[in-house]
Write a structure and sequence with these properties.
The chain is an alpha+beta fold. The protein has four helices and 16 strands. It has four domains: 69 residues; 95 residues, SH3 Domains (SH3 type barrels); 63 residues; 69 residues, SH3 type barrels (Roll).
């Protein structure tokens, strides 16, 4: 009875210690919250230091525990088992496992798409034929490592691994009445494996990527060629425009050299009905070049002489004075 009371006391004391620890943790969190609410971040940072140290210690202790488990024999065997599983998942051919072979079976069924029959019990010997999926060859009971000797439909050796064959549902003393096999006496094809399928898929993907790259390069080359043609066409158009402007300028220079042309830049020049300043105004002349019909000089007596040009504008014929206020320029053939 005293021993029972001591156990109860120990349990009670453990419970009290746990409650005290929870209370201390709650007070610690409330303290940090109060300091954060009043903006005392220095006190908050100092209060968080023990928490960070506690968490860091827990992480280090967890890593030590993981290392201890990893170094145990069970962990090593599990890692080795996981490595074998991963090797099978990525398509590598596992090493033969004689514990799973079908060497003790007198009747086996081919489960791989195609299984070669060889002259000797090794991968480098010649091929005398091939069995397809579902074939049940007649075995002699003779074995060598991982190989079975058969005498029908071919006489030779087949790989008896569990990835190539499996036991028949019932023994067959003779070959099936309609065996499924094909002759490959003149070929030397290896047994198909998952690695072969993966290599074929990788080759197909590589070919597809190469084709896409070639297509992109061809499209980019065509686009650059089209842009170059556009640039050359634009350059040719600019050259043609420049030559046209040069030809027009040359023609205008020739016309000014041989023809009297007057230039008006003053927008207040009027076309008069007579060669007289006080005659009737017909219209205002816009700025530009004009080709006079005739030139005349009018004697104004004691006021001197006035020179006038007769021009035609929009079907109206009139006169403008030949002076510097009216004309801004005139070609050399003008009087």
């Amino acid at each position: 009875m005293p021993q029972k009371n001591n156990s109860q006391d120990n349990i009670s004391q453990s419970g009290n210690a746990g409650r005290d620890l929870i209370q201390v943790a709650g007070n610690y969190i409330h303290y940090i919250q109060r300091k954060a609410l009043i903006g005392d971040w220095g006190a908050v940072m100092i209060a968080l230091v023990p928490l960070f140290l506690f968490l860091y210690g827990g992480i280090v202790a967890g890593q030590q525990i993981v290392r201890v488990f990893d170094s145990s024999p069970n962990a090593s065997s599990n890692a080795s088992s996981n490595g074998n599983v991963e090797a099978r998942e990525i398509g590598t051919k596992p090493s033969p496992d004689t514990s799973q072979n079908n060497l003790h079976e007198r009747c086996v069924t081919v489960i791989t798409p195609e299984l070669n029959v060889r002259t000797k019990p090794n991968q480098n010997s010649g091929i005398v034929g091939a069995l397809t999926r579902g074939a049940q060859p007649s075995t002699t009971g003779e074995t060598a490592d991982n190989w079975l000797k058969i005498n029908a439909p071919y006489e030779g050796w087949i790989n008896g691994g569990s990835i190539y064959t499996q036991p028949c549902e019932k023994p067959l003393p003779t070959v099936a009445s309609n065996p499924t096999y094909q002759s490959t006496a003149n070929t030397n094809r290896p047994e198909p494996t998952e690695a072969t399928d993966i290599s074929r898929k990788e080759a197909e993907e590589t070919a597809r990527q190469v084709a896409l790259q070639q297509q992109r390069e061809a499209e980019e080359t065509a686009r650059q060629a089209a842009l170059q043609q556009q640039r050359e066409a634009e350059a040719a158009r600019q050259v043609a425009l420049r030559r046209q402007r040069e030809a027009e300028a040359a023609a205008e220079a020739e016309r000014r050299r041989t023809t009297c042309i007057v230039t008006i830049s003053n927008s207040l020049v009027s076309l008069m009905s007579e060669h007289d300043t006080f005659s009737r105004e017909l219209t205002r002349l816009p700025a530009g070049d004009y080709t006079p019909i005739q030139h005349t000089i009018v004697d104004k007596g004691f006021l001197g002489q006035e020179a006038w040009f007769e021009i035609e504008v929009n079907g109206r014929t009139g006169w403008i004075r030949d002076d510097s206020w009216t004309l801004s320029d005139k070609s050399s053939p003008c009087p």
